[in-house]
Amino acid sequence: MIGAIADDFTGATDVAVAMRRRGLRTVLYFGLPPQGTEPPEHDVVVIALKTRTIPKADAVARTLRALRWLRAHGAARQVYFKYCSTFDSTRDGNIGPVLDALADAMEVPLVAMTPSSPEHGRTQYNGYLFVGDVLLGESHMRHHPLTPMTDSYLPRLLEAQSAYRAGVVTLDQVRGHVVEQRLAELREHGVRYAFVDALDDSDLEVSGRALAGARLVAGAAGLAGGLAAAHARTGGGEPPAPAPSGVAAVLAGSCSARTLEQVAAMIEAGRPAYRLDALTDRDPVSLARGALAWYDHLPPGSGAPLIYSSLEPAALRRVQQILGTERSATILEHALGDIARGLVERGVTRVISAGGETSGAIVSALGVPGGMIGAEAARGVPWIHTPDGLSLLLKSGNFGEPDLLVEASR
Question: Which has more confidence, 76 or 140?
Fold first, then answer.
């Protein structure tokens, strides 16, 4: 029914759980499924890519390969391109080029979208994106290490990346139930992308019904939930899922304000904590070896440990000035991936990850092809149960309450 392509791994879990909440049978794959893979009976297939911050040409190529796979497996009646609810994509970002390529490949004249996700405090009004009660460009996202967001007007952001024009479906038009008419009007005026306002879930459900027959839609998990509500055959509830169990460990790489709170909460709770310092040791293999040696000497009963590279903005800027943004991120992601593999070899069965890029590195290092979407530890943060007995919690940097990492790792 629906094939979703996400530009990072935590975003993929977010959109998958939005579908599952509506009772849709959802299959999640990390990366392009291996050759010969046939998805089980499903309503939705989600393919998690790691394309948010890679070179544009690579992001486009990987996304189009995912589209071809969905088409070949009958999962492209409607395609949903999932990006972050804070539109993590500067003027040089990948959202525009990827959408241009998808729309061209699918011969779609107009694509409706919104990053609005009210349950996460992201809303769109008159085409402007708000984080909580402040504009995106005035929020903590101004200081994001990879995608600093300094503009809040979504059409302007997208037009800087795309070859096409963007417009807005206003809140009055959504609540007046004239979304389809407005989209037709924009299309007649040569607009290819339409950002649809939404302040609450009911707005997203109105848009979801209007877009139920659209072949290509884009946005965050909020609109995915609106589409799922329109497609759901029953009002029926989430399927049962096993409870995660076994030895837990937390790996944090995000430097978002919320993850920093969650890291602080772990330390305040007395959990053993080890910080990865790329300035002291610039070799990811050596960094990982040191962290695993520390883990091996933890006394019994210490509680689930935290291994982290998260830094406050000033400290992060210093690291990036010395090592460069890309190099510092690469060192730490490789180290965290190696650490995750070493922890699993040592008997860890619950891996809790904070940060989209971190989660992508960990899943890739562990070679996890996908899994069953389970219960949520926080809204949009589900457990993922793999066929080999691992339980993964992949948390986007900004998601969850301050005690999420503490509670999930008990």
Answer: 76
